[in-house]
Design brief:
Blueprint lengths: L5 E5 L2 E3 H8 L3 H10 L9 E3 H11 L4 E5 L18 E2 L3 E6 L5 H8 L17 E7 L2 E7 L3 H9 L7 E7 L6 H12 L3 E7 L8 H10 L12 E4 L8 H15 L2 E2 L6 E10 L3 E10 L2 E2 L3 E4 L2 E9 L8 E2 L4 E7 L8 E5 L2 H19 L6 H9 L5 E9 L2 H13 L6 E10 L4 H7 L4 E6 L5 H10 L3 E4 L2 H15 L2 E19 L3 E13 L4 E6 L2 E13 L2 E3 L2 E2 L3 E8 L10 E11 L3
Parallel strand pairs: 1-4, 6-8, 6-9, 9-10, 10-11, 21-22, 21-23, 23-24
Antiparallel strand pairs: 2-3, 5-12, 7-8, 13-14, 13-20, 14-19, 15-18, 16-17, 16-20, 17-19, 25-26, 25-32, 26-30, 26-31, 27-28, 27-32, 28-29, 28-31
Helix pairs in contact: 1-2, 5-11
The structure holds guanosine-5'-diphosphate (GDP).
């Protein structure tokens, strides 16, 4: 290595103090440099790897090389490249789409269950998975509470779905959540298959739905594009075999593979506590073979697999890639989206879970500056407003989903989301207590609010909002955030007139006439007076005349007169241009 180069190793993050020492700068001069870049930092603030490298770039220290320190055996350090011994695995499919377009019905019909009609009031399904056999081959279906769950998994750095089936009702067309599903699938690099549903319905219009979809970038194969679209009826069962054929065909083209002779690994897709069973965790295996009795680590927890069941609840001895299983034996609840890996023994498991916990603490210590924060600080003039929330959910998976999805709302740097606390279970006294006085909204997802708690909240002026549908919760949060934004002035150009005569000029009023070159002018509009390309001042149009009669407007090509009101003494002269515009205060939207 070049002797001039200076190597700084960073494990998870580095404090301003440590970085200054490593760079050979005094702390004050580093803080000063940071400040010049719009970052207000203290000596003990932790900077993550990306932030530290941005700062070194900003400092122009080209001789400094940042390296990630190898702390060897954290879960995230274990990565397997596919070997040439990798074998074919079943596709993992997610079904997404707008509410009521038939996702549940499709899954139910496919699985031969007839429970769609009875869902309300029944057991709410959480992120879970099913398997189905078609043409003697397995397909794994994920059932999720929404695309947000997937966005959350993406946030956790893991990729889960091979194919996304987007369900669009042929009698309703493309709707906002359809668009979201398309965006999600594209950003997750998943293959898209469209199921155009409810073709049994009167009013179903398949070609129109296809046209709708192509407006959103999905070109049907029939029309020369590359997206398979299958018209189906989830309820009647029409064409479902064809849909499954297409899923398998897509899987073949993608050549989905995994290694099986490696230690087992995969992702946590659901976790909750059950009396008598302890932690009950749904896993999706992505590599290796998972067996009862093995030690696994996920996040800051580990366990020895005590029982393993398939998606139907039947005992399973061994799970291979793409297979979802429910296991017990974890000491604690791992989080939704966590990666799990198999390790040799309890000692290794304990050590790795501790290292994971340390790394997680490093990364999420609230004082840390992440590169996202850094960009935000660089982009905003420190006038961002804070939206405080407390999130309660029925299971850990839904809390994680809600939190991660809230973080994904693009606030254009104007609102800072402050998650005061999160937790599993009904909304309680402590939540209300924490929210009081701080302008905080308490959100509950699939949880209830005991009467005494809602009384207490009403007394303390704490808003509590509960939802069963994640989009609705997110919509509300977005709306609440919009309410925090100041209104903004919006001006819109309307037209232009060339002045051909000035009839009267008084202190605060002018009567002039001319020809409309473009657009329209109406009473009430404002105008900028421009003389030889120089801005003279602003006037208000109080009335518009055509052939000496008051009219509602003058349009391009017409000639007429205007009465103008001025605030400051300005004049309008022959050949001036009046540029008309409207000015409104509008509430900003996100
Ligand atoms: P989800 O919100 O996307 O899961 O939608 P559901 O599966 O709950 O379906 C919403 C409604 O549409 C239910 O009343 C279903 O019975 C109905 N539905 C779903 N698929 C079809 C279909 O292919 N044809 C008809 N006629 N109705 C359907």
């Amino acid at each position: 290595m070049d002797e001039q180069k200076k190597v700084i190793q960073i494990a998870g993050s580095i404090t301003v103090d440590e970085l200054a020492k490593a760079l050979g700068l005094s702390v004050t001069s580093l803080i000063g440099e940071l400040f010049k870049n719009g970052i207000v930092a203290t000596i003990n603030q932790r900077l993550d790897f990306e932030t530290a490298s941005i700062i070194i770039d900003e400092l122009g220290m080209e001789n400094v090389v940042l390296e990630r320190k190898n702390t060897a055996t954290k879960t995230s350090d274990i990565r397997h490249e596919l070997s040439d011994k990798a074998i074919a695995r079943p596709p993992v499919v997610a079904v997404m789409g707008h509410v009521d377009h038939g996702k549940t019905t499709l899954l139910d019909t496919l699985l031969g269950k007839k429970t769609a009609e009875g869902e309300a009031g029944g057991i709410t399904q959480h992120i879970s998975a099913y398997q189905l056999k078609h043409e003697d081959r397995w397909i794994t279906f994920l059932d999720t509470p929404g695309h947000e769950a997937f966005a959350a998994i993406r946030q956790h750095g893991a990729m889960l779905t091979d194919i996304v089936v987007i369900v669009v009702a042929a009698d309703d067309g493309v709707k906002p959540q359809t668009v979201e599903a398309i965006k999600f699938a594209q950003s997750a690099n998943a293959k898209i298959i469209v199921a155009i549903n409810k073709i049994d319905r009167e009013g179903a219009d398949v070609p129109r739905t296809m046209a709708d979809l192509s407006q959103h970038g999905l070109q049907p194969e029939e029309w020369g594009g590359d997206i398979v679209m299958v018209p189906i009826s989830a309820k009647v069962g029409t064409n479902l075999d064809k849909l499954l054929d297409m899923i398998l065909l897509t899987a073949d083209i993608e050549e989905l593979k995994a290694d099986v002779d490696i230690p087992a690994e995969g992702l946590v897709i659901e976790s909750h506590m059950e009396t008598g069973r302890g932690s009950v965790v749904n896993l999706l295996v992505t590599g290796g073979e998972l067996k009862v009795g093995e030690y696994i680590v996920a996040g800051s927890t580990y366990g020895k697999i005590r029982t393993m069941l398939d998606w139907r609840g039947k005992p399973k001895g061994k799970a291979t890639p793409s297979i979802p299983v429910t296991i017990t034996g974890f000491k604690d609840l791992p989080s939704f989206g966590d990666r799990f890996v198999e390790v040799a023994d309890e000692k290794t498991a304990r050590k790795m879970s501790l290292l994971n916990a340390q790394a997680m603490a490093d990364e999420s210590a609230s004082a840390n500056v992440t590169s996202t924060d850094l960009l935000r600080m660089m982009n905003t003039a420190d006038n961002s407003k804070v939206f405080n929330v407390i999130i309660k959910g029925d299971v850990l998976g839904s809390v994680t989903s809600v939190v991660d999805s809230l973080k994904l709302i693009d606030t254009k740097g104007e609102i800072t989301l402050n998650i005061v606390s999160t937790g599993v279970g009904d909304i309680n006294e402590n939540d209300v207590y924490m929210a009081a006085g701080e302008n905080t909204v308490v959100y509950g997802f699939n949880v209830s609010v005991p009467i005494n708690i809602s009384k207490m909240a009403a007394r303390d002026g704490v808003p509590i909002k509960t939802y069963k549908v994640i989009y609705e919760l997110l919509d509300d949060a977005k709306h609440e955030m919009e309410n925090l934004l100041d209104a903004e002035v919006v001006e819109e150009d309307q037209g232009e007139m060339k002045i051909k005569g000035v009839f009267r000029t008084e202190k605060t009023s002018i009567i002039a006439g001319g020809e409309m070159l473009t657009g329209v002018v109406k009473p009430g509009m404002l105008a900028r007076v421009i003389r030889d390309k120089t801005y003279i001042g602003e006037v208000e149009v109080t009335s518009v005349q055509k052939e000496k009669m008051d009219v509602k407007e003058l349009a391009a090509g017409e000639t007429g007169g205007l009465a103008l009101k001025t605030e400051h003494k300005i004049t309008v002269e022959l050949n001036d241009r009046l540029k008309f515009f409207t000015r409104e205060m509008k509430k900003k939207t996100l």
